[in-house]
Amino acid sequence: MTSRLHKEEYSDKSGLASGGCEQERTLTTKEQTLLDALRELNMDPQTESGEDRGFFVRRLTKKTDEERKPRVSPFEYSMPRFSSYPETGTYHFPKLSAFSGEDNKGEATWDAFRYEIHALLTEGTFTEKQIMLRLRRSMKGTAGDILRRLGPGASLHEVLKKLESTYGNIESQESVMRKFYSCTQGAEEVTAYASRLEDLFARAIELKAIKRGNDEILKQVLFQGLKLDLKHIAQYKYDTIDDYDRFKIELRRLEKDLQMTDKKRTCNVRYKKRQISTTTTTKRRKRDVQTFQTTG
């Protein structure tokens, strides 16, 4: 140990002597603070030249190779480094709406729930195991019991097949097409009527009764089922607009204008009735006054 210190002292002094630049080196603020602290503790190193002071400070602040190693416990060194999810490679999982198959408030229908799962599979962002984990947490009630009976090793395909057989569409092509062509607006607004019609249209596509993208039939049935007053004023828009969505927007505008017209008409009728009532009351009062004056 003593020989090593002598070697370090000799190498440091030889470097100072040979370099020339090290002799002119001034102490840093931290080094000067350290020397001042030693003097206050009556541990003055008794160095006269700047070279000796620099050598002394470097000896105090110099660390060995053992001291430079991070001080961690043997347990931390031996901890295995692996991902908690080695098969998925990510800690993120998809979000799915709650589904129980019992028409509870705030829960998704089977069609909406199935669409969410199919969209996740199409995107390919998450693996089937990640989707299955979220599926187990989202399914409640009766649907959760179906999943439980399949067992923890059931695949996503098996789960979807079982749910489709339980909650899927069981109508025939003829039944869906009959409902589609006989759909009318009734007392609802255009938005609700179109949504109900589009739902039947989507069912017909699933049953391969109608080809996807055949919006001309959808536009035709939408127009035929409108209320008579709205249908009369929408005839020109139906003949000039080919796009279904644009036609639906125009129908909503026409419906809004028609509602405003009906409100004005109702207000005018009420105003006229009020005027007639006021006039009748005034005439009756005049007649009563004349009768009183005559008898008096």
From TrEMBL:
Q: Which residues form the Paraneoplastic antigen Ma-like C-terminal domain?
A: 99-224
Note the InterPro entries from the entry: PNMA, PNMA_C
Organism source for this protein? Dreissena polymorpha
User: Residue ranges of region Disordered?
Assistant: 1-62
User: Pfam families annotated for this entry?
Assistant: PNMA
Stretches of Basic and acidic residues bias are at 1-12
| Protein name in the entry | Paraneoplastic antigen Ma-like C-terminal domain-containing protein
